[in-house]
Amino acid sequence: MRNLKTAAKIGVGFGLVIAIAMAIGAIAIWNMLGVQGDARRLDSETVPQVELANSIERSAELAMYNMHGYGLPTQNIYLRQANGSLG
Known about the structure:
Blueprint: H1 6-71, H2 76-86
Helix pairs in contact: 1-2
């Protein structure tokens, strides 16, 4: 390395920087391809399950709220709303 001219040393260094950048880019692409499968699985399986669970929880909370409203003043409108939330 001592016998090389300055321009050659700079060229070798720049070549190494480019090689390292390409290696890091290849690793990033490899990792993104692996994540792509996980993202598709989340989209097709997990998200619909969460939406369904959220809908069930919302309906249960509305039914509970309306049954509580019916129990205090015994107004039939709350009972009808609670039955609508359950169905």
